[in-house]
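Q&A log
Question type: sequence-to-structure
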Amino acid sequence: MYKNMGDEIKREKRRKPEKRVILLATAEPMLKRFGIKRISVEEICAAAQVSKMTFYKYFRNKNDLVKAILTSWIEPAYAQTEAIMSSKLSFPEKIQLLLENKQKMLEQLSDAFLTDYLQDNQEIRAFIQSWSDKVGRRFTEFLKEAQARGELIVDVKPELFLTYLEKVWELARDTKLAQLYPSYSDYLSVINRIFFYGVVPRR
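Response status: OK
Response body:
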């Protein structure tokens, strides 16, 4: 009898999502829509139907929750970035896919979130910067590997290429120009061709 009761309790626990998962799933769309400053721990708890005591069992504060959500976005994006860089695609194809990957990542973030991140929240900025530094180091290795394979000329320093790529990224985010093409991928493809081959037709 007691064994059956124990088994039933275990099954019930498996059926019920962990409170931490519920908090993350509830807060994520709120964060995307309203940013960091406009939502409070109280509002998150009310929406998740979880007590504040339970919230603080899993997270030290709101920033701790935000970092957990950001990690759930960044880690898959980083894994995809690594897969692209390690693939057998050509160097230009890899760059185009990396740009598309970056765009998809940013599309998850609202203007409110980006404003909060850029202006006030030093802790979140430091957290994102640590990931950015990690990606930057890996991308520098990626460029050096491309140079070793003869896919990128050796007199282009990685720092110079990264600066050029940032300018390309600024152009890639021009929504008015993007609308001139059938799809965003088509637009990125044209930018990529100009970046690598110029505007003269290849023969």
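Response note: The chain has one domain: 2-197.
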